[in-house]
Amino acid sequence: MMKKRRITQAICAVLYNCNFTGFMDGTLYQGSGKGMCVPGLNCYSCPGAVAACPLGSVQTALISSPYKAPYYILGVLLLFGTLLGRFICGFLCPFGFLQELLHKIPTPKLKKNQWTRRLSWLKYAVLAIFVVLLPLALFEPGFCKYICPAGTLEGGIPMLIQNESLREYAGWLFSWKLLLLIACLTGAVFCYRFFCRFLCPLGAFYSLFHRIAVLRPHVDLHKCSGCGACVAQCKMDVKHVGDRECISCMDCKESCPCGAISWQTLPRKSAVSAEEHR
Predict the structure, then answer these.
(1) Which one-letter DSSP state was computed for residue 113?
(2) SS3 letters for 164-181?
(3) How confident is the model at residue 267 (pLDDT cuts 50, 70, 90)?
(4) How far apart are CA 63 and CA 53, in angstroms?
(5) What CA–CA distance (Å, rounded) separates 13 from 157?
(6) d(CA 257, CA 253)
C-alpha cells in the first residue's frame, strides 16, 4: 500500500503542475483549467499549476462577493469532502507528499503525545481566522498572504527567480513567509507531516467529513482484538482508525494482526465503524 500511495502522490504532484514551460519562462498558466480546483493544497501562482487551489478559491470568492455565498467552490469542497474526506490528505496532496519525503531524513523523531494531539486543534483556528474571517473582514486572502508555505515554495520562490522585476517588491512579508516555509519544512524532518497536523486549514476542513466520507478506513469489530497496534504505529495524532486526524494512508492495515482493517466505500448495514462503536 505504501508504494502505491507514493506513486499516486507523485503522479498528482506532476499532474497539478504540468505546465512545464511556466517554470522556464516564469509565467502563469491562464487556461480554462484555472477555473477549476484540485482537491489538494497546490498554489494557483505556481508557474506549473494548471488548476486552482481550493483554499485560494474560497478566499477569493469571499473577498469578491462578501454578501453572496460562493456556491461553486463550496459545492466543490463539499463534494471532495463527502466522497474522499482526508483520503485527499494521504494520497492527493503534493505538500503532504513533500513532508513525508523530508521525514525520511535520518534524524531523531518527535513521537506523538498529548501535546501534539492538543496542537492538532490549531489548524481549525487557522481555518476560521485566516481562511474565513480575514477575507470577510479585511478583504484580503489571509491564509495565502500570511501563512501558506506551499504558496511560497511553489509560487513565490519560482516567480522571484524567473522575474527580476518582482524581486523589488519582495519585502518583509515575503521574508516572513520564507521563514515560515523553512520552519515548516524543518519541522517535517523531525515531526511527521508537521504542517498537516498543526496548521493546514484544508486538512481541518476535510476532517469534518471523517464520519460520512464515502471512501474511508473501516474496522471490522468482529475481527478486531483491540490490541491497539493500528493506533500505536500511526504517525498521525489518531485515537482510533478513521477519526478526524486519520489521513486514510492505510499503513494500519499492514500492521493489524487480525486483518480487521479495510476500505469502506459504501455504508454497511451489518458493520459498525470503530468510532461509532466507542
Answers:
(1) -
(2) HHHHCCCCHHHHHHHHHH
(3) low
(4) 15
(5) 17
(6) 9
Give the angle subtended at the CA of 135 by the CAs of 129 and 136, to the nearest 5°.
95
196 and 243 assigned to the same domain: no
State the Cα–Cα distance between residues 78 and 2, nearest whole angstrom. Answer: 27
**Looking at the predicted structure, is the pLDDT value of residue 273 above 70?**
no
- Pair (267, 184) in one structural domain: no
- Exposed e or buried b per residue across 158-167, where buried means at least 16 C-beta atoms within 10 angstroms of its C-beta: bbbeeeeeee
Between the CA of residue 67 and those of 137, 167, 170, what are the distances in Å? 12, 36, 32
Do 136 and 221 fall within a single domain?
Answer: no
Sort residue 56 into left (φ over 0), alpha (ψ -120 to 50) or beta: alpha
> Which of 267, 259, 266, 265 has the alpha carbon at shortest distance from 221?
259
Task: Find the mean pLDDT for residues 202-224.
Answer: 95
DSSP-derived secondary structure letter, 96: H
Residue 72's pLDDT is: 85
- pLDDT tens per residue, range 249-265: 999 999 999 999 999 87
Q: Are residues 63 and 198 in the same domain?
A: yes
Tell me if 1 is assigned to some domain.
no
